[in-house]
Amino acid sequence: MKSLRPYLMPIAMVVGGVFHYFFGKFTYLTPYMIFVMLMLTYCNMEMKQVKFSIAHCILLGVQLVGSIFIYLFLSPLNESLAQGLLICALVPTGTAAAVVTGMLGGNVASLTAYSLLCNLAIAFAAPIVFSYIGVNTVMPFWKSVWMIAEHVGFLLLVPFVLSWLLSEYLPKIASFIGSYSSLAFYIWIAGILIISGRIVDFVLSQQIQNLWLEITIAIATFVLCVLQFVVGRRIGRSFNDTVASGQGLAQKNTILAIWMAQLYLNPIASIAPGAYVISQNIVNSFQIWRSRQSAR
C-alpha cells in the first residue's frame, strides 16, 4: 500500500472532482478530520525529542512575514487574489508532509519539529491576520480575534495540549493513539476527496465573468507553490536540512487552508488553496519520481 501513496493524491483529486456532487456534501466533516489528523501526529511524537533549530525560526519568519508582504503587494491589484495567496503562504505545514519527507530521504524529526512550531504560531497569528483582512473587519478588533480564535486557534492548539497531557499522564493511551499515526495520511486523502468536490461545486457556481480571475489565481498559486519549495530548500541547504525545510515551508495543510478561506475570506479566494492542492501534488510527484530515478 505504501508504494501506492504517491498516486493516491492525484487520484483523490480526480475522483473528488468528478463526483463533486456527492463528496461536496461532507464539507462539514473538515474540522473534525483536521483535529484527528493532528492528534494522531502529535501522539506519535516524543515531545522530549523535538528540537527546534535556527533554520526553523528562519522558515517561520519567512512564512509569517512573506504572507503579509504578498497580501500588501497584491491587494491594490485584486483583493481576492491577495487573500488567496496570503492563505497559501500563511497556512501551516500539512500533516502528510512527514510522509513525503520520508519518501524523499529527508529528516522527518526536523520536519515534525517545524510542523509543531508552525501550527502553534499560526494558531495565534491567524486570528489577528483575519481580523484585519477577513470578513470580520467590521467587528471590534478583540471580538473578531476571539471569534476566529475559537475556530482556528482552538482547532490547532487543543490537539497539541491533549496529546501533551496524554503523553505526560496517560502514556499508554498516547502510545496507542500514536500507533495509528499512519491513518493521518489516509484521512488526508479522504479530505482531498471532500475538498476537491467542494471546490468544483464552487467553481461551477460562479458566473463566467470570474473565469479569468480564477485562472489568474490558479497560475499565481502554482508560482507561489514552486517558489516556497525553492526558498525552503535553499534555506535548509545551509543547515544540511534541505528536504525537510522545503517540505515544511511549501507542503501546506490545504484542507485547513480551504476551510479558513471559505469561513473568513472572500469566497473566490478559496480557489487559491484549492489550486494549491494540485500544485503541491504536482511538485511532490515530480520530487518523488526524480528521487527514485536517482536511486536507480
Walk me through the topology.
Blueprint: H1 5-18, H2 20-23, H3 30-43, H4 54-74, H5 79-90, H6 97-103, H7 108-133, H8 141-169, H9 171-178, H10 183-205, H11 211-237, H12 242-250, H13 254-264, H14 271-295
Question: Can you characterise this structure?
Answer:
By secondary structure, the chain is mainly α. The chain has helices at 5-18, 20-23, 30-43, 54-74, 79-90, 97-103, 108-133, 141-169, 171-178, 183-205, 211-237, 242-250, 254-264, 271-295.
In short:
This protein has 296 residues and is mostly helical.
Largest sheet: none
Helix share of residues? over 70%
**Named CATH architecture:** Up-down Bundle
**Alpha-carbon distance between the two ends:** 21 Å
Derived from helix and strand composition plus strand pairing, the structural class reads mainly alpha
In terms of quaternary structure, the protein is single chain
Q: Quickly count the domains.
A: 1
Strand content: under 5%
Calculate Rg over CA atoms: 18 Å
Mean of residue pLDDT values: 83
CATH class: Mainly Alpha
